[in-house]
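Worked Example 4.2. Consider the chain below.
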Amino acid sequence: MSYKDEWLVIEANDDIDEMEHREPSEEFLFYRAVANGDVDAVRKNCEQGRFMDTEGVGVLSRDPITNLKYHFVVTTAMVTRMCRQHGMELEQAFRLSDFYIQKLDDIHTADEIKHLHDEMVMDYTEKMRRYHHSNTNSKHINACKEYIYAHIKERITIEDLADALGVSSSYLSRLFKKETGVLVSAYIRNRKIDMAKNLLRFSNDSMIDIANRLSFSSQSHFIQQFREVVGMTPKKYRDTYYMVEWGAESPRPDLAGNGVGLSR
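Applying the procedure from the previous section yields the following C-alpha cells:
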C-alpha cells in the first residue's frame, strides 16, 4: 500500500476524530513574542512548560524522544523565520538555528530537550530585544533597507530608492550616511556580498551564475567586489566554507522541503 493510500485509510478511521490540534493563534503569539523581544512573555511560557504539553500537539514520531526532537526543530525553524522577518540578520539567524538543532545530537532525555528549547527561545528573544532597542533608524532609512532587501537581486540605484520613498536622491543619500555611517552604494554592495556568501556556501551555482543573479556587471566585477569586502576571492571562500557546518558533500536539503516551513 502506498503512503497516500495508507493515509486515506487512517483519515477514515474513527480514532483520528478524537485528535484535535491547538489553535494556531497560540503558537503564532508565542513566535511573535520571541521576535518582538518580549522576554517576560517568553520566560513565562517556558516556566509553564508549554513546549512539553502534548495536548493538541501533533504526533510526529511514535518514539517520545524523537517526537520531542522533531517538535524542537519545527519550533526553531518558525522562530528563525519570524525573527528574520522582524530584522535579525540572515547569517546570525541561521547560524543560531544550526547551532541549537545540532545540539539535539548530544541529548537523549525529555528534560534535556526542554532545557535546550528554553535556552534556544530565550537566546533568540534576548537578541531581538537588543536589536529593537538599538535600531534607531528613521522611518525613511528602515524603508530604504526593506526596499534593498526586497530588490537585492536587481541593480539598485539611489534614484530607485528615492523614487520608491518619494524623496530626493540627495536628501536620502545624506540621511542614509548620517544614520548608518556608510554610503548607500556600500550598503547595497555589502548586502549583495552577504547573499553571495550564502550561495557559495549552500549551493553549487557557478561564479558567473551568482554574479548574474545578483546583477553585478560582470563576473570579474563580482570577484573584485567580493575580494574587497571579504578579503578573499569567491573561489577561496567556497573552498573554505562550503557546507562546512554540516560536513556534507552535496547542497544541504532545504528545510522547507521537509515540511518545516523554512527556506534559505
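The longest helix spans residues 110-134. The chain has 13 helices and no strands. Compare this with Example 4.1 before moving on.
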